[in-house]
Write a structure and sequence with these properties.
Blueprint lengths: L2 H6 L16 H10 L5 H22 L4 E3 L7 H8 L5 H9 L1 H10 L9 E3 L6 E3 L2 E2 L10 H12 L4 E6 L1 H7 L1 E2 L13 H17 L4 E5 L9 H15 L6 E5 L8 H7 L4 E5 L4 H10 L3 E11 L9 H11 L3 E8 L18 H4 L5 H17 L5 H15 L7 H8 L12 H12 L16 H12 L4 H22 L16 H4 L3 E4 L6 E4 L2 E3 L3 E7 L6 H8 L8 E4 L1 H6 L9 H21 L4 E5 L14 H16 L7 E6 L8 H6 L4 E4 L7 H9 L4 E4 L12 H12 L20 H24 L1
Parallel strand pairs: 1-5, 4-6, 5-7, 7-8, 8-9, 9-10, 10-11, 16-17, 17-18, 18-19, 19-20
Antiparallel strand pairs: 2-3, 12-15, 13-14
Helix pairs in contact: 2-3, 5-6, 9-10, 10-11, 13-15, 17-24, 19-20, 24-25, 28-29
């Protein structure tokens, strides 16, 4: 096909779409099902209607080929485990008794069976459930869900493409099941898994699929020759079968690198590549292999992970370069639109001109359709759209919001000394022990406590004008008092105020910093039914006034025990926001760090002796390629130290991280120079404690003994067993006892019981240590 005919044949498509619905109908239906208010048929009806609505929106916008299989009740990786029959033995009976309840038991756990481990999906804030595999795993094909979704779309008269997690990525994301040797490599199961994928592909072809997309984002990471050979073998096998649909292998989030020649040679009909995060690298690599003659190329030229309007002329130039490198060039977002909110037009509180800078899923869909039209028919066919786009880009570039001379001058004046504590850790530790006088194995929580119905009602009443700010603040005082009282009665050693006043750990601060925009309806799935509204970091950042001092000081006035000041760190403020793309991330991080430094200093001046600066996103934001790690880790750790280094030696700085793989950033954790770090460890059975010990981590640490992402209550014996395992890696004088993460999403009954058991476990192990 010539470049001209390739352009004329261009089609618009997406890899996935937000699942929740305009009013988060899916969340409400699932949580209603868990509470017994919604039955299974009603839940399935809600899901069916949401899928239908999504497909119709896409088709009406001009998308030529809609995705199926991207919708999920909880997580698409868990759906893949169900599809291939990889059900953990402890959940098998539940799944066999009731498929839906068994599915949720794997996601959330039951009182008798722990859930699957949860961690971040590459470098996003989406969490997936980690497959558990072992040498005895038997895979069986169950394509029921995938075939049903395809049939529903086809019945609407739509052209549909099922989207599946690819077999190589699925195995590379998996971990050894409990009881399996830690060095077991799930990739050794590839030859056992491929026939199952082949059966699913056959089932989909029989059901009417012309194309099936197999997502292989793991191939944009550094991969060994053995792993690349496995990818080559997988697609030789699947591509060599005759009873299958056409195969589109998709990668995203970074450059494909050494895997591109492997996939280019594979007997598959198409590739999908990211031309936003890694446009130049993927263009060069594609040219180096001679393009994709005879194949379909789906070009991800619209950023699927951020919310800024696309530069349409730049994207068209990239698409024009791709013509002639493939038999057919189609237009798409760089990845699933799962990672952005649904519709920017729902926002009423953002200035209309600024709103034109933003593109959520529906606006990105329109951009994709516009680009496909321009590629096929020429720029004259989209002249009005291009003119409007140029005006929007110029408006943003020239806005006073994006440039504050005072902020830029302060950032430019930062020196290396600003990021160093005044004394080394051993001297600080001695000063803190003398000042705080904590027991061995001190107990604490991560920060947030359950947000009660009364509190949520008060917040809604304040927004609606049914109560005034004085009435709302009285509700906050009551909540803080109850939280402090509970912690004292339970016997926790370092308390928190519970964060009753905070809607979200990033949004709360963003709403008080200049340069940020907040949304009302910008919900994005984080995991399961947990949705967040990432704020938009649009301009230069500063802190007009103290943000947390008032409520922290009030909580401290209610107790003689230390109350932690709680802040969100600069890297997490970036990672869990939609960050500006018009300057280096390092520059933005320094601006945020300096604003937070002012808050840390004010907390200390108000008498706060323990200050926690959470950085759960430090590992999440790690670039996918190792060669990019040093630059990122240098500015990320510098930003944390810049935030925290201005305090006295006897002020104890904590940080917190959760639900990520920490082993490859232990040196960076060390470089933060925090006095205490708390980390998720319950689901991974204290793996992070062993990783810290292997590194020789010299400071205090609290690997979690209570998994807060499950409603189950861990017994005191269970928590004590985890604590003893932690002591195998971390000396008692440096070990803290805490949950994995904050308790905002939990209910009070399970929180009370779990924390009481946590304190009992700490006391039990203290007694054992004193007796030994």
């Amino acid at each position: 096909m010539t470049a001209k005919s390739a352009a004329a044949a261009a089609r618009a498509t997406v890899y996935g779409y937000p699942r929740q619905g305009q009013g988060r109908e899916l969340k409400k239906a699932i949580e209603g099902y868990w509470k017994g208010r919604v039955d299974a048929d009603a839940l399935r009806a809600t899901a069916t209607e949401l899928r239908r609505t999504n497909w119709r929106q896409l088709a009406e916008a001009g998308i030529h080929e809609v995705p199926t299989g991207d919708f999920s009740y909880y997580d698409h990786v868990l759906d893949t485990s169900v599809m291939v029959g990889a059900i953990p033995e402890r959940h098998r009976a539940a799944v066999e008794a009731d498929a839906l309840d068994g599915y949720f038991s794997m996601a959330r756990g039951t009182q008798d069976a722990a859930p699957l481990e949860m961690t971040k999906w590459f470098d996003t804030n989406y969490h997936y459930l980690v497959p558990e595999l072992g040498p005895d795993t038997v895979f069986t094909a169950d394509s029921t869900q995938q075939v049903a979704a395809l049939g529903q779309a086809l019945a609407l008269g739509l052209t549909a493409r099922p989207v599946l997690v690819g077999p190589v990525t699925y195995l590379l994301l998996a971990k050894p099941a409990p009881g399996v040797a830690a060095d077991f490599d799930p990739l050794t199961l590839l030859d056992r898994l491929l026939p199952v994928y082949a059966q699913v592909l056959t089932d989909l072809r029989t059901a009417g699929a012309e194309w099936v997309q197999l997502d292989e984002p793991a191939l944009v990471q550094d991969r060994t020759p053995a792993e690349l050979n496995a990818a080559a073998r997988a697609y030789r096998d699947l591509g060599g079968r005759t009873d299958r649909p056409k195969l589109l292998v998709a990668s995203y989030f970074d450059r494909l690198g050494d895997a591109l020649p492997v996939l280019a040679k594979a007997p598959v009909e198409g590739l999908a590549l990211d031309f936003t995060e890694a446009a130049a690298a993927n263009l060069d690599a594609l040219a180096a292999v001679g393009g994709l003659p005879g194949k379909r190329l789906v070009a991800g030229v619209v950023n699927g992970r951020n919310i800024w309007v696309n530069d349409l002329e730049k994207a068209l130039a990239t698409l024009g370069t791709l013509l002639g490198l493939a038999d057919r060039v189609d237009v798409a977002a760089s990845c699933s639109l799962l990672h952005v909110p649904l519709d920017a037009t729902a926002e009423r509180d953002i200035e209309p001109q600024i709103l034109r800078w933003l593109a959520f899923a529906r606006q990105k869909t329109a951009e994709i359709v516009t680009l496909a039209k321009g590629l096929g028919g020429g720029t004259d066919t989209i002249a009005a759209e291009l003119a409007a786009n140029r005006a929007d880009l110029a408006s943003r570039a020239g806005s006073a919001l994006t440039h504050d001379p005072a902020v830029r001058a302060r950032t430019a004046a930062v020196t290396a000394t600003d990021g160093r504590r005044s004394q080394p850790y051993p001297e600080r530790a001695a000063a803190q022990r003398a000042h705080l006088r904590l027991p061995l194995l001190p107990t604490t929580t991560i920060g947030s406590f359950p947000q009660t119905t009364e509190l949520r009602t008060a917040r809604a009443d304040l927004r609606a004008g049914r109560i005034d700010s004085a009435g709302y603040e009285e509700r906050i005082r009551v909540e803080i008092g109850e939280v402090i009282s509970f912690q004292e009665k339970t016997g926790l050693d370092v308390l928190v105020h519970g964060e009753a006043e905070r809607n979200d750990m990033v949004q709360y601060f963003a709403e008080q910093l200049t340069g940020y925009l907040a949304t009302q309806h910008g919900w994005v799935q984080s995991y399961g039914t947990r949705y967040v509204r990432p704020p938009i970091l649009a301009g230069d950042i500063s802190r007009p006034e103290a943000m947390t001092v008032r409520w922290t000081t009030y909580a401290q006035s209610l107790t003689a025990k230390p109350v932690k000041g709680m802040l969100t760190g600069p890297v997490t403020m970036l990672a869990w926001s939609f960050v500006r793309d018009d300057q280096p991330l390092a520059d933005t991080a320094r601006q945020v760090a300096l604003a937070l430094r002012d808050e840390v200093n004010d907390l200390e001046a108000a008498g706060t002796s323990v200050i926690q600066v959470d950085e759960p996103a430090l590992r999440e934001t790690l670039p996918l390629r190792a060669c990019d790690h040093p630059e990122y880790l240098a500015w990320a750790t510098e930003a944390f130290r810049l935030t925290t280094a201005g305090v006295r030696p006897d002020t104890q700085i904590h940080t917190h991280m959760c639900y990520a793989e920490f082993g490859d950033i232990v040196q960076a954790i060390d470089d933060l120079d925090a006095d205490v770090i708390s980390l998720e460890a319950a689901r991974s059975h204290m793996q992070v404690a062993r990783e810290l010990a292997g590194h020789g981590y010299p400071r205090e640490a609290g690997p979690g003994v209570y998994d807060i992402h499950s409603p189950r209550v861990p017994g005191a014996d269970e928590a004590a067993a985890l604590l003893r395992r932690g002591l195998e890696a971390i000396p008692a004088e440096r070990l803290w006892v805490n949950p994995d993460c904050g308790l905002k999403t939990r209910a009070w009954p399970e929180t009370r019981a779990s924390l009481e058991n946590l304190v009992t476990a700490a006391r039990t192990v203290r007694t054992e240590l004193s007796a030994s």
